[in-house]
Design a protein that fits this description.
Blueprint lengths: L27 H9 L1 H10 L11 H10 L5 H14 L4 H8 L4 H15 L4 H15 L5 H27 L3 E6 L4 E9 L19 E7 L19 E5 L5 H10 L4 E5 L2 E2 L2 E6 L2 E7 L4 H5 L6 E5 L2 E2 L3 H9 L6 E8 L2 E8 L1 E2 L2
Length: 351
């Protein structure tokens, strides 16, 4: 076409309007987005702390840029794509609606905007973009659906890796390789006494599709917080030790994932988190001021016996502890390097 201009960010998959439908602002998405979403977009922008570029963006501007995604002018389309990506969170819902129209150019550019927003440093923006792409991928929208699925597939590993790094920074323990299931890429996450994150940080778990086991030890997770565990394909085991989750909350989680093991304990407490390994039950976390710490049990100890009963794995240890009452005194034998040590422990209570 004549009058094409050089764009600021060339998008190789789509630069031509040949054979596509001429867009107008009378698309059905325009009426829906900028009517029903007007109030929601404003609130979402405030909640996310504004747009990615640091300036203020109005609903009218976003409407204009979305319409420009289907412009006959290449440079205009390119500039609109860049501006929407810079707008950040506030652009996600309108762009999602645009992606599911029957205009291939508009749909492709909308997916590109969401792809860029996946890389946002704002957790809420990245999560919202991922949810939007999932919605598009699951919709009967032809090419846009396939493109969205490809974007999600390409970005999933990076997204998961970033979430793991952030969980570690907040004091969580992450183990890749689940011996209980035999999956070398299965992920186990333990949140214990060193966890400094807030309830809102549990949203990081949603970025880890390979999560197979979650162990919570003495962290004030509530029934409402368990909503962050929706939508996992591989989650098979959740430990809730000394949390605020009620029996009903644990039961709802079990119903959400048929066959899952939900281990909720509020009886005797040793104050450790551990992993099952070929060498046995290894302690990975010892809570400060816990019965275990007071008895001299340390991180990387292997628990060999509990009251003269052999401990094959961490599951066996938690079962043995759970059969006891607060105040019980027990002898726990651990292996530390080449030494076998016996520790007398007075079990505590979960609070």
């Amino acid at each position: 076409m004549s009058g094409e201009q050089t764009g600021t960010v060339p998008l190789a998959p789509f630069g031509s309007r040949t054979g596509s439908k001429k867009p107008t602002c009378r698309y059905r998405f325009a009426l829906f987005v900028f009517g029903a979403f007007a109030v929601a977009v404003t609130a979402a922008a405030k909640a996310s702390g504004g747009n990615e570029s640091g300036g203020s963006v109005t609903t009218d501007e976003i409407r204009h840029w979305v319409c420009q995604l289907g412009s006959d002018d290449f440079g205009t389309r390119e500039e609109a794509t860049v501006r929407l990506a810079r707008a950040g969170f506030v652009a996600i819902q309108p762009v999602t609606a645009a992606a599911m129209t029957d205009d291939l150019e508009v749909a492709c550019r909308s997916v590109e905007v969401l792809r860029q927003l996946l890389n946002s440093e704002e957790l809420a923006t990245g999560d919202a973009a991922a949810d939007a792409l999932t919605k598009i991928a699951e919709s009967p929208s032809g090419s846009a659906s396939d493109l969205a699925a490809d974007v999600l597939g390409d970005f999933q590993d990076v997204r998961q890796s970033r979430a793991i790094d952030e969980i570690k920074r907040l004091g969580g323990s992450v183990t890749i390789g689940n011996l209980d299931t035999g999956n070398v890429d299965g992920i186990i996450i333990t949140l214990g006494a060193t966890w400094t994150g807030k309830s809102s940080d549990l949203k990081l778990l949603r970025r880890i599709p390979d999560l197979e086991r979650l162990s919570i030890h003495g962290v004030g997770v509530s029934d409402d917080d368990l909503k962050q565990l929706e939508g996992f394909d591989r989650l098979r085991w959740v430990d809730l030790f000394g949390s605020k989750v009620s029996a009903d909350g644990a039961a709802r989680l079990a119903r959400m994932y048929p066959g899952i093991r939900v281990d909720r304990r509020s009886s005797a407490k040793l104050g450790v988190a551990g992993h099952s390994e070929p060498a046995g039950c290894r302690i990975v976390i010892v809570e400060p001021n816990s019965p275990a710490e007071k008895a001299g049990i340390a991180t990387d100890d292997f628990v060999v016996k509990f009251q003269d009963q052999m401990v094959a794995d961490f599951e066996s240890l938690t079962t043995m502890i759970g059969s006891r009452s607060p105040g019980d005194k027990v002898i726990i034998e651990v292996r530390r390097g080449s030494d076998l040590l016996k520790k007398e422990v007075e079990l505590g209570a979960w609070k």
